[in-house]
Each structure stands twice: as C-alpha cells, then as structure tokens.
Design goal:
Rossmann fold; Immunoglobulin-like; 8-stranded parallel β-barrel; 19 helices; 36 strands; 24% strand; Ig-like_fold
C-alpha cells in the first residue's frame, strides 16, 4: 500500500487537475506557492495543508513608496582610486546598479561616510572632502599623489535582491520592483504587525505561514550590468542602517565605523576572522531580530496557524544555531538542499517541531527547458542528500517553482515519485533512532557552533574553485558514521577540548576564519591543543591548518603534524625526508589521489613523519605520532566516494581505532552501511548510479557479499552484541 505525507508540492493558478494528479503520485500532503506564483481557491480547497509565502519586509510597495526614508540600507565601498595630484574625484557608485541602490543623502555624509587613504589606512579628515549629490561624486582635496583612496558610503536598497534575481531569471518584464523596508523604522515596525493581522484574516485557507524570511537579506549586491557583484550568504551588511548604528551605540557604549562593515572591501565574509566589534554587532542584530520576529510569530499562533521560516533570503540575524533562535518560537524551518551538508544544516536545527528540505532542481526555466534532462540533477541531489538523511532525516521534503514546467517532463515526474516513496520509507524506519557512530569529530574554526554545517560556503552550496577542496570535508562527514560537532578557538581557550571528542579537524586556507589566522599566535591555544594531542587525541589538518608565520613555523602545530610549508625562508636547509611508506592504513582503499587544488611546498620535518603520498617534490598526505596521539595532514579533500573513504580511514587512524574501522562497513567505496542497533536495522546503500558488489560487515566483524542495484537502498534485520 502506497504511503502518503511528508511532501510539499508547489502549485499555481489554473493547474488544478494536474496538481491533484501529482499530489496522488508524490503522496503530497501540503501545497505551497512560490515567488511569482499564487494558488487559486480551488487548489486551496484540496485535502492538504496550505503553505503561503509571506514577505515581511518586501512586496508592499504601496506602503514602502510612502516611507522611502525607511528603506533598508547598506554600507558599500567604492573602487580603489589612485590620486594623480592633490585633487581626486571619485565616482563612488561606479560598478553598482542604480536600479537596486541609491546613495543616502538624507543622513549627513560627513557623519556617516568615510574616505580612507588605503595606502596608509588613515581616515581622511571630513574637511578634506565634499560630496556632489547631483553627480554622485566625492571630491578629495589635499590628496597625496599616488596614494589610493576609497569612499565608504551609505545607500538605500530600493529593490529586493531575491525578487531582482527572479525577475531577471524569469524575464518578468514590467513587474513592479519590490522595495525592502526596515523593521527598525517606526512606520515599518507598526505596518509589519498590522498588515500581518489583516493578512491572516484575509487568508483563512492558509495553514502554514512561510516567512521568507523576516527582516534582513543576506548580502547580495548587483553590478551596473544587473549581474551579481557581491554575494555572501552569511553577510550582515544589509542589516546596517543609521537607526541600527544609533541603537548599537546606545546599547554598547561605542559607535560603529563604516569600516566595521565594509572591512577594506571584504565586507566581513564568513572567511574573514571576525573582529570583536563585528561579533558584537552580529549578536546585537540577532537579539533584535529574535525579539521582533517573535512578535510576528505570536500573531500567527494567535490566529491558529503555524509559523515556518525559510532558511534563506531574509534570514540574516535568525541564526538557527545561535543563542536567541529558540526565543522566536517557530514551528518549522525549511531550507534549500544542495547536498548532504546543507541537508544536515537544516535537519540538525534545534527548537522547532519539524524541518523541511526543498530539493533541487527548482522548477524554473533555467533547468526545465526543451532538450535538458532534469532527472540527472534530481538524481545527484537525492543521492548526496540521502546519505545525510540516513544520519538525521529532515521531517519533510518538497520542491519549489512552477509545477507546470515540471509536469512537461514525465520522466522527472516518475523519478520524484520514487524519491518521495523512498524518503517516507527511510523516515518511518529511523526517525528518532540514533545511528551507529564510531567516532566523535570536532570541526575547529573561528565560528564554532554558530556555523554548524555552514563552513566554507559563499553563496549557499554553489561551487567555487577556492572552496571545493574544503567543502568536501563537510559533505563527506554529513553522511558518515561519525558524530560531528563544531567548536571555536574561543571554546578551546575558555573550556578546553570536549572530553568525548576523538579527533579534531582544522581545514582551510591561511588567514581565513576556518584555518584560524592570528588565533594561532595565542600560546594558550597552542599549549591546550599540543597537550590534548600528546595525551592521546587525534588531529587532522587539511590545506593550511594552524597556518600563521610565527617564530620559525608556518604551521603552528608543525611539530605535532610532522610537516611544514616552505616559504623560501629555509631553502638553505636540506630536506632529506621524501620517501613514502610502502603501504599505510589510511590509503589502503585508495587507487588514485585527488587533493583538489592541493597545497604547494609541504615538506616532512623528520623521519618520524609517515609520508603516504609524495609527488612533485612535496608532501600531500602524511601522518605523524605526537606523544600518545596522532596527526594526519591532507593537502585538500574534494567530495568523492574515494575521498570519503580516505577521510574515514584517516579519522580512525588518528583516533587509534583502526580495529573498529570494519564495524558496519562496506568494502566497496560506492556503498555504505548505516546501522541502527537499537531497532535491529541496517541500511545497505549504493551511492552510485551503477550496480555495485561489496562485502558488508556487521557490528561484530562478520561479512557477506551483497550486490546492490543502481542507487539501491536495502534494509536488513541485524543483531549486534557490542
């Protein structure tokens, strides 16, 4: 008998019969609208929960146009400009999109803007520059020839960036531009509450209010061609305003500078080691957002409806892993699933009744067009996410966009029918059941638990050349039989390493928040970690771990890692240790190595370093004993089945638990075993699109040969004596 439920279907006007058909085939028990679609009354009367998208801070132009002084704001930085003589004129809006952004001349530029000599880092005195509001120029006098200068300036955001993206992608033509307004504005604050109350009365068929999201969009700025110029999915740049700065000064006792936001043009991306001021500003915004969002959620609950938050768009300040999130009182969170890491990012969120993943592809014309096969993307998306679901499932899955587009692809419709059935089967079997975990692994970086399952991301799950060699760590761990936690350098400084952690991973490029930057000059951090490793802990460094040139080391844990990086400073010192070991536990399943972008000029410090892979005159994979502990160095780890196996072996080796590696294990790297001893079940999984044969080991070391069909998941009853 076919199961139903736990699936949300997007729909649209004049699509009733097809919606009913897909509801039955996909077993959907909820229907949603999307940006650009609406549900007609007939669809709302179907036997399903109705999700209605609700835009708190945009989509109300009739109000926004009357209060343009309460538009949301951003601090932006001009291009670098070189002074040729003592006078320099800067076109500070050059490269920005005038349809999205307008300079703020309502508030005094001399008070709220900054001109900086980027050659010296000094702020230019306000008496030495003036603004021409007619031409959007700043004119600097007494400039120093051949120095570079920038202008940090406030703008009003007059077009919501998500609606702008959808507008351009879907060619919405003359559709009005949504104007975003700020909850800190007195009129906006009052309007948000009063409009929601009226909206709830006007939408009696809505069961779930899908807030998309609350107040502040992740930082997304477009260039003069209408293309993305700057995107940071974690950025707080669009939460700044004159009102916010004044409130911050009143609460904290000091005033923010424009530079605290523009950050030399880096805008405090998650890759930057956060300053104390920026962390305090983030905390300030999070507290405010939680207080204001709770008011709206309470209104929804008073109407008898559920409140759901979309983990995207205007999600800044909600921080589902932050200390204020619980106060909001949400019923649910829904987010976009790009793979295993993003699935876990959603599924592991605490303090909500249920979580929901919006799977790919989105039903938009950039994917659903004649000649393309959306099944390929859907299959890849499902297989990567399924690994993570088997560790901790979201409570629901769904899709978004124009259902009429997807309906034109019958193979896609049939494939999603299989996916939804499989998801329900997994969920009904394992929800609330603890899976077998052989190790406890801690990811160590500057952000810690606040960025749980969110490291090395720029624009959510999009691919970037500089990050895929690190994102692979998260993707591999998201579906692995290990317990994963995220800790910060400050956590270690204040509380030490948690007692139950077997292995710490530090991964990232030098100077980034993920590697650690200047944190590695702190002797208390170094002594705490050296002592922990020496007394039996495991440590894995990937890329440029602990990197900070200081006192004769590039890697500050070089003595523990057994390797360091040649910067040219020690070329006069001979390096004799270049011979790889014949075989090693870590590489036992590896036929080839893929370190992604890799790392240049890594060398072994002594004969104690176990070189596992050495090529082009440098070390890419090595292990090293340090007292009773072990360390492993990996030059990079893009996600793949082979690299997932390499990482798992490295973890068990670093933890001195090699003998436990074959518990609930599949010999074939394309297969995995997910065991649930408390219910006597195990899932044998083929993560590939080809048939695979593998030896499968149970928790007692017994093995048998199994052949799995492409993408197959097979449930077996098991017993475990451990």
């Amino acid at each position: 008998m076919k199961k139903n439920g736990r699936v949300t279907l997007p729909s649209e006007e004049n699509f009733l019969a097809e919606t009913k058909e897909l509801m039955e085939r996909w077993g959907a028990d909820a229907i949603r609208d999307s940006d650009g679609t609406k549900l007609d009354n007939e669809i709302k009367q179907l036997d399903a929960k109705i999700y209605t998208t609700y835009f708190v801070a945009r989509g109300h132009n009739e109000f926004a146009e009357q209060h343009m002084e309460e538009c949301q704001q951003l601090y932006l930085m001009s291009l670098f400009n070189t002074a040729l003589d003592s006078t320099l004129e800067i076109d500070f809006m050059k490269g920005y999109f005038a349809e999205q952004l307008q300079p703020d001349y309502l508030h005094d530029p001399k008070k709220y803007w900054e001109v900086i000599d980027r050659t010296t880092g000094e702020v230019v005195n306000v008496s030495d520059w003036d603004v021409n509001a007619r031409t959007n120029r700043v004119v600097i006098t007494n400039a120093i020839p051949w120095h570079e200068y920038t202008v940090s300036f406030l703008v009003f955001a007059i077009w919501d960036p998500t609606q702008m993206y959808n507008h351009i992608t879907n060619n919405w033509g003359d559709k009005p531009h949504d104007i975003p307004f700020d909850v800190r504005g007195p009129h906006s604050n009052q309007y948000m509450a009063s409009y929601l109350k009226q909206w709830l009365q006007d939408n009696p068929d809505t069961d779930v209010v899908r807030f998309t999201t609350f107040f502040y969009h992740f930082t997304l700025v477009f260039n003069n061609l209408g293309k993305e110029k700057f995107v940071d999915w974690f950025g707080y740049g669009a939460s700044i305003s004159v009102a916010a700065m004044d409130a911050f000064e009143k609460e904290k006792g000091y005033r923010l500078r424009p530079e605290d936001i523009v950050d030399q043009g880096y805008y405090n991306t998650a890759f930057r080691v956060p300053t104390k001021t920026y962390l305090e500003y983030m905390d300030f915004v999070q507290k405010f957002v939680a207080e204001e969002a709770k008011k709206l959620v309470d209104i929804v609950h008073e109407s008898g409806k559920e409140a759901m938050m979309f983990l995207g768009d205007n999600w800044i300040g909600t921080e589902p892993y932050g200390k204020y999130f619980e106060q909001i009182g949400l019923d649910a969170v829904v987010g976009s699933v790009g793979g295993g890491a993003t699935l876990r990012m959603i599924a592991d969120i605490p303090h909500v009744s249920y979580t929901e993943g919006r799977f790919l592809p989105y039903f938009f014309p950039d994917t659903f067009y004649e000649g393309n096969n959306p099944v390929i993307e859907a299959n890849e998306n499902w297989l990567t996410a399924r690994r993570a679901i088997l560790r901790n499932p979201v409570d629901r899955i769904g899709y978004g966009g124009y259902l009429s587009l997807a309906y034109k692809f019958p193979d896609f419709v049939s494939y999603i029918e299989q996916v939804t059935d499989e998801f329900r089967d997994i969920y009904d079997t394992i929800k609330g059941v603890k899976p077998y975990c052989g190790l406890k692994v801690a990811i160590l970086n500057a952000w810690g638990g606040l960025r749980t399952w969110q490291t090395h991301m720029v624009a959510h799950a999009l691919w970037y050349k500089q990050i895929y060699s690190y994102l692979g760590v998260l993707e591999s761990l998201s579906g692995a039989s290990v317990d994963v936690t995220f800790i910060s350098f400050d956590d270690v400084l204040h509380n030490g390493v948690p007692e139950d952690v077997d292995v710490i991973i530090n991964a990232g490029d030098v100077g980034t928040a993920f590697s650690g930057g200047e944190y590695w000059k702190n002797p208390r951090l170094l002594t705490a970690l050296r002592a922990w490793i020496y007394n039996g802990g495991g440590f894995i460094g990937i890329g440029e771990p602990t990197a900070c040139q200081h006192e004769g080391h590039y890697f500050q844990l070089a003595s523990a890692l057994g390797i360091d990086k040649e910067l040219g400073y020690s070329l006069s010192t001979d390096k004799y240790f270049t011979t790889p070991v014949v075989e090693h536990f870590i590489s036992a399943d590896s036929t080839t190595f893929d370190f992604g972008e890799g790392m240049k000029n890594i060398y072994a410090l002594s004969e104690e370093t176990e070189i596992i892979e050495y090529s082009n005159g440098e070390v890419h994979l090595a292990s090293h004993p340090f007292g009773s502990g072990r360390t492993v160095y990996i030059a990079g780890l893009p996600y793949s089945e082979e690299n997932t196996r390499l990482l798992m072996r490295a973890l068990y080796y670093a933890a001195h638990k090699e003998e436990e590696f074959h518990k609930w294990h599949a010999s074939n790297i394309y297969c995995e075993v997910h065991a649930y001893p408390s219910i006597g079940k195990a899932a044998l999984v083929n993560n590939s699109m080809r048939e695979q044969t593998t030896l499968v080991y149970d928790g007692n070391g017994n093995s048998k040969e199994v052949t799995l069909a492409p993408s197959e998941i097979r449930w077996e009853d098991v017993s475990y004596e451990g």
